[in-house]
Amino acid sequence: MTTNHCNDPCAATLIPLAKKEGITTVWDRHKAMQPQCGFGQLGVCCRICWKGPCRIDPFGDGPQQGICGATADTIVARNVIRMMASGAAAHSEHGRHVALALLGVAEGKLPDYTIRDEGKLRSIAAKLGLDGTREDILAVAREVALATLGDFQNQDHDTPCAWIASTITGKRLEKLAALHVLPHNIDAVVTGIMARTNVGCDADPVNLVLGGVKGALADFNGMCLATEISDVLFGTPSPVVTAANLGVLKEDAVNIAVHGHNPLLSDVVCDVALLMGDEARRAGAKDGINIVGVCCTGNEVMVRHGIPLAANYLSQELALITGAVDAMVVDVQCIMPSISEIGACFHTEIITTMDDTKIPGATHVNFREATATENARQIVTLAIEAYKRRNPQRVIIPDIKRTAMVGFGTEAIVGALATLNAEDPLKPLVDNIANGAIRGIALFAGCNNPQVDQDSSFVTIARKLARNNVLLLATGCGAGAFAKHGMMTQEATLEYAGDSLKAVLTAIGTAAGLGGPLPLVLHMGSCVDNSRAVEVAVALANKLGVDLDSLPLVSSAPEAMSEKAVAIGTWSVALGIPTHLGIMPQVTGSPVVTKLVTETVKELLGGYFIVELDPDRAADKLLDVIDERRKALGI
Ligand code: MSK
Which residues bind [4Fe-4S] cluster 2 (predicted)? Predict the structure, then answer.
């Protein structure tokens, strides 16, 4: 499907402006790319060795094997599990970075960071089987960091990674162990996928996909540790009211957009900006410094500190086209290389900060945790200097921003429930699921993709599910979409929730002191924070004495795009969660792989992929799955 549309209300102003200025955007480039390669779309193009590229003729008239003899099934399986390995590597590298920072703090080597949530650190220690009660909190931090880094070092294949082993249900662990897909070492599993997909190695599509599932579960492990340790270092989210969309930019402030995923830098930039407001004012910015978020770095600082979100993935270029962004500071992942070219059309400093993420034309600040405050100061100074070069005539900030109540991590959700039942916080949730007031739970995750109208599938599916009393959780750029479209508000609950859901959300929100219902969609954080939703699901499953594949729980990635989304979707399925994709996955050139991931896997793991490009029909399918699960539970 090719639409080349953007459903973001800011686009109506900014895309014509871009055209007038001769600036191309992601939608222009997507259009120029049509028709996209059909072999690639089917996953049947093999570029694993230099005998190729080889491609299988999907119509049966041409080659049915690559030069080495690989079939479409082998080629598709190899391609897709390499995507999973890349996704796992991305999340886990982020996690390693954060774990090393925790170790640095514990050893007194990183004075610019501190333990912000001691309680969380102690509970993580207990969860990992360590002594969380020791008085010396730095000693606890050291043990947690070392145990976490052990998940990158363990060579015993029979001992699963500590984080996954301490997070999911016992029944799920047994099931995954029986299939030999439990990861023992993140690095080894990713390396293993690259090795088995090398020319002349694993050719069995089922064996390959199982190897991919192990990689996806390594991704899950990496996400768990990244999320939880980030909470320790930067604070655990709690409800906060903020705003989203490009109207959060300010004409009279130095606007700094933090973009990417890793809070190690962005959190310090936020702190330093607070101290440098006077310098900005001396440069003429009467409102000082305004930090805004983009993509998942945006989500990280939004759910923890209430920093407003300017843009999700597809709108990152639009932020620059306002002419009001003085610096866009990026760390890792989901950063379009095009931002450097667009920044150069304005006065905007594009600042890269990580050794492994540089962009031609950008200014590089060599970020190190040991010099984080100094680096942040350098970045804010660059932004103030850029502000002085800003041309006010070119500033067009669409007057569009929506309120968003965010910050619903696991602790915040359980905390809100505890206001109804302090002794047994999960009981109100379980009771309302059992009596049907909450029909089921849906987690919205994943990216934007120009193959569909930006944000529209998220909004369409969520509204239909909410009307049918499904509790909605969201992360990543999906959460960004909901925030931008006003669906993280109490008003949205009153407008779109079905009657029984509305009553439950109102009871919880009111008891929790929010002055009204919980927002229609609960923002759990960045894409790395999908592990939070699993934590809630595991608590529910344990409470009910069932495994995850019995819960009336679904997930949906209607606009999936990145390799990380491929990994997330796969672990979601492996954990027993029916998972909707609104984008055609690049596997349909293989009948074996297609059947495996949409049907056979259901018998093996309980979860499976539901591919439905039409958002309205997708909502119906998700409701059917929820009802099927309810029926099986006898509720
Ligand atoms: S940023 S991985 S586009 S969610 Fe996490 Fe958004 Fe997807 Fe990137």
Answer: 46, 49, 54, 68
